[in-house]
Amino acid sequence: MTTASNPIALPVTAVTCLEDRAHVERSAALDLEAGVQRLRLGPVSALAVDRTLHAGLTADFPATVLDARIVRTWTPRGPLPSAGEDSALRLRVHELEEERRDLDLQRDRLHARLDALGHLAADLLRDISEGAGAGETDPDRWAAELDRVDGERDTHAERLHTLQARFTALESELGATRRAMLLAGQEPAELVGHIELTVHAETAGSAGLRLTHLSPCAMWRPAYRAVLDGDSLTLETDAMVWQRTGEDWSGVRLTLSTARSARTTTPPRLGEDRLTLTDRSAAERRTVDVELREEEIADLGPTPVRGLPGVDDGGETRVLSAPAPVSVPGDGRAHRVPLSAFTTGTGSEYACSPEAAPLVTQVVRFDNLSGHALLSGPVDLVRAGGFTGRGTLDMTAPGAPVELAFGSRDDHAVTRHTEETRDTAGFLQKTVVTRTVQVHLSRFSAPGEQGDRVVVLRERIPVSEVSAVEVRLRRDACSPAPDAVDSEGIVRWDVPLPPGGRRTVTLVYELSANSKVTGV
Asked: In terms of Cα–Cα distance, which of 211, 207, 206, 197 is closest to 14?
């Protein structure tokens, strides 16, 4: 049994791109003869993983795949066939070598001339010293001769410096041209893979082949583009695909998955956790030690990630598909593949949290109507027909609400000032800490702009977890009175700002603790 010399084409028809690899599917039509035969298919990527190779024929044809393997061939660099005449690079090398030979001769002549001028200057100085010793003085002639020799030495030294600079540049160009000629005159080294398929067919006929394998050097990440037009928002979901598998994907069915086939699933180790009860000392019974700590308000959801890590799918495998065949060249660059897009109405507010940042930010809220989960990824923000920046979209389930910040507003200014007073009052010597926060909001408007703009201002007050410490919001001292206070201590005002208007918001709260409390 011999292998067919002419390989059968085995193009890529479908690709499932995973987090750091790709599952490649190939299809071909085979003309089989009765009996056992060995077929050669390809070429295929030499990076295909051997142990993941799987081949199968159509079920309605009486044939069986006996063996399938990848055979790789290495073609080293070799000389190209002669074209019958010198190439442009070879002619350029010849010109540079001729110029270098001329420069060598000119440099030798200049060195000889400078040596002769050096000897002439030495003889002239010796003649001057001997004449002066004999009582002969001719300063004018000596000065003229020395000036003439020094002038010629300076002229030849400048010419030698210019020639040396040109010689250095020529050497660099000659080396680069020789390297280019070497690469252009040789065939590139190539590693090519083929599939050797052994098939047993009961009868002659045509059968369809489906072959799959894994390939490294491929990855994808989600990316988004949000276009805000008034009260309407269009969200486009794309996939950034990179692949350098050694072959191009042309017109393939692309599927994107967050499955992690290489990650093992092992239960976590259970460590021993011992709890020990001890009696408190008399000093500990008399005091209550408290501390002020920062705690982020969070809800259930995936853990936020930074940079370009693995795809965040919330612990559940997600599968997305490109609506049309796509082509991804194997150049290792990022290629944007459209997945879905939808347009929906939005609710918008101008939010300000001056304790975190003295900015007024436009926040847009809408529902996920894409029909699939929105994975965590960067989003390009487009507003008023122009690119305004880049944000981050957290993972969102289908139909769930989405909150997206469209950047700060340059026509608003925010300043924040805080004051704190401490006092001891009452028979029980309670410590009372009074904090006053003032926030100044300003709006800069163009001439002719009309209408108020409501800025949602949020400040926070501490939330006590022990009965010995009380936090009280002084509504009578707040100006204006807060519109809402939630259980997390977030105080909210809806502040209307007219064009060119200014408003000052004052927050006052008291933190009181009895004499047993320390750390306030």
From this structure: 211
Instruction: Encode 263-330 in three state secondary structure.
Output: CCCCCCCCCCCCCCCCCCCHHHHHCEECCCCCCCCCCCCCCCCCCCCCCCCCCCCCEEECCCCEEECC
> Within its chain, how far is the Cα of 467 from the centroid?
49
Is 379 in contact with 392 (CB distance < 8 Å)? yes
Per-residue confidence at 306, pLDDT binned at 50, 70, 90? Answer: very low
Output 437 or 409, whichever has higher pLDDT. Answer: 437
State how far the Cα of 6 lies from the Cα of 26, in Å rounded to an integer. Answer: 18
pTM for the predicted model, two decimal places: 0.67
Query: Rounded distance, CA 335 to CA 331, Å?
Result: 10
Token representation of residue 68: 């399938």
* Dist CA 356 CA 346 (whole Å): 25
Name which residue leads in pLDDT, 2 or 485.
485
Domains parsed from the chain with CATH numbers: 12-78+189-215 (2.40.30), 89-185 (1.10.287), 218-260+309-408 (no CATH), 412-518 (no CATH)
